[in-house]
Amino acid sequence: MIGEFLFEEFNNNLKIFGYISIFFFLETFWPYLVKVENRQRHTARNIGIFLFYILVTTPVNYAAAAWYNFIDAQQWGILNLFTINPTVKIILGIMLMDCGDYFYHRLSHTSKLIWRFHKIHHSDSEMDSTTAYRFHPFDNIGVVITELTTASIFGYGVDTVLIYFAIYTPVLMLQHTNLKFPDWLEKISDYVFAGPNFHRIHHSYPQYLTDSNYGALLSFWDRLFGTYQHHFKERVQFGLEDTNDNKYQTLWYLISGPFRKH
After folding, report:
1. pLDDT digits (tens, 9 = 90+) for 104-161
2. DSSP of the chain
């Protein structure tokens, strides 16, 4: 079981590095924003925090995988109380999982404790494909706990989670890449998915823009719950107003920053 899981984790992380490499290459030639200061240093820092993220979250992901399998075996949750077409059950599970992620994401901006960890992701002032996995591992643990909770309540299991992340991983890369897309494509996609322009607003300041557009995969949660913001792309300024100094961008700060006194 452990060996099989580690092999799958290795394959998943290899796919992620593959996505990063592809988008990193593309955004070199078709950038959304032309200026990226010291791209090599920026890339090294973001990949460094991602490697730290993998190290810490792998055992957490193992425990989560075991729990999803347990839910399937025991047929826990509301969805398992009814006879539902398997495809419909997966679609409902994906929506419920994404809704849970939306509310946790909102909490991570309002809770001072969780924000300490989540702001590491937001502090990148030069967003590109490497920003997609610039997460502090303790930020991700909160997401996993939320997803396990919603899975336990509603009863979606392994198949739903695998399909969700198969869709979400490339969407996550698209959201963060410094790649230019046709305006018409972004406008259409943003009605359903949390697309690049939708998410760029979330990564910009002032704070009222940062505290908007929380959707992970689907964008309509923000429209439904009143947190949607539309903004002119040309005025977007990435990062946070209080972390643009270079001292907040070192790898050591990305790892240790949430534990320091503020």
Report:
1. 999 999 999 999 999 999 999 889 999 999 999 999 999 999 999 999 999 998 999 9
2. -HHHHHHHHHHHHHHHHHHHHHHHHHHHHSBSSS--TTHHHHHHHHHHHHHHHHHHHHHHHHHHHHHHHHHHHHT-SGGGGS---HHHHHHHHHHHHHHHHHHHHHHHHH-HHHHHHHHHHHT-SS--GGGGG---HHHHHHHHHHHHHHHHHH---HHHHHHHHHHHHHHHHHHH--B---HHHHHHHTTTB--HHHHHHHTBSSHHHHTS---SSBSHHHHHHT------GGG--BS-TTS-SGGGSSHHHHHHGGGS--
pLDDT tops 90 at residue 230 = no
Neighbours of 199 (CB within 10 A): 24
CA dist 259 and 262 (Å) reads 9
Whether residue 59 has a cis bond before it, omega within 30° of 0: no
Cβ partners under 8 Å of residue 239, min gap 6: 122, 123, 124, 125, 126, 127, 203, 204, 205
Per cent of the chain over pLDDT 90 is 71
Count the Cβ atoms, other than its own, within 10 Å of residue 256. 11
Residue written as token pair 């810490």: 56
